[in-house]
Write a structure and sequence with these properties.
It contains five helices and 24 strands. The chain is mainly β and 316 residues long. It folds into three domains: 110 residues, RNA Polymerase Alpha Subunit, Chain A, domain 2; 90 residues, RNA Polymerase Alpha Subunit, Chain A, domain 2, CATH 2.170.120.40; 89 residues, RNA Polymerase Alpha Subunit, Chain A, domain 2. The strands form six sheets. Strands 2, 5, 8, 11, 12 and 15 form a six-stranded mixed β-sheet that branches. The protein has a five-stranded mixed β-sheet with strand order 6-4-1-3-7. Strands 22-20-17-19-23 form a five-stranded mixed β-sheet. The longest helix has 22 residues. The radius of gyration is 45 Å and the shape is rod-shaped.
Amino acid sequence: MVEARKVITKIVENWPAKVLSLALAIVLFVFHRMNTLETRFFSTPIVLENLSIVTPSSPYPRMIRVSLRGEANNLHTILEDDIETYIDMKDFSTPGTYKVPVKWRKKGNSLMVEPLQISVDPMEITISLDEKISKFVSLAASFIGQVDAGFNMTSYSFNPNQMIVEGPVSLLGSISELQIEPIDLTGRKNDFSIIATVLHQDPLIVIRGEGTTEISGTISQIIPVRNIMNVAISITGLHEGFTGELEVKTANIHMEGDNRDAVERFDPPDGFLKVDCSGISESGTYMLRIITGAADGVTLRTDPQEVKVQIEFTGE
């Protein structure tokens, strides 16, 4: 018992000095630890949580600077995704401009690191809110380049041909269509079907769904066409003693063909258009079909296709 009292007496002897020494030792330890800690910086995207009937209506900081302070070996195990910065919007339901604090939470490897001091810059941001609406918006095509020579794109279509977009009423009201990424037509001569991305340039507006559409185009060959005007019509096959008189002495030739050179270079020779009277053996007025000569690789049509012929028997 006496020995115990001596120990207690020894402990409490000069206790103010001992307490001061202990406190100083703790301060020195903390100071030493602080001096041996390192600092690491990186930026992380800010997340808006619990948005309901309002949405941002003007630009706001998208990235937040994060400062980590801790032991060097531990800091390097922390990934940028292990610290999440966010703003809780649950208390904001009316349009207006507000200052809101930036919060952070630890995830992944950062949960196992101690000591770890975390700070963000800026600590609060100013954000403008407006009523959130959604609507259907039509898609618009954009093309670059030209299809192959002798071809033409005759039509195109989208599937789907509309997108649902969501955003502040102040911005969404002025949007009537959305552009898709440019489609290159260079050298095309066949129908095509392409999955294209809908261009989304304003981060305040959200496109619902995958943000892509299938665009299908129809490409047709251009058939060379040429018209030759006022080509003379001749009368053939008249029996002996008969004469013929055409009511219209010329006709126009409409030409089509796959070979452009053949169409453009064709020159009808004399007697290329004619009417055959070999089947007529009496005087009278007859409506006869105009016959064309041969033309390789070219489809021909005359205008008119028939002509009136007056046949007379003269006996000569």
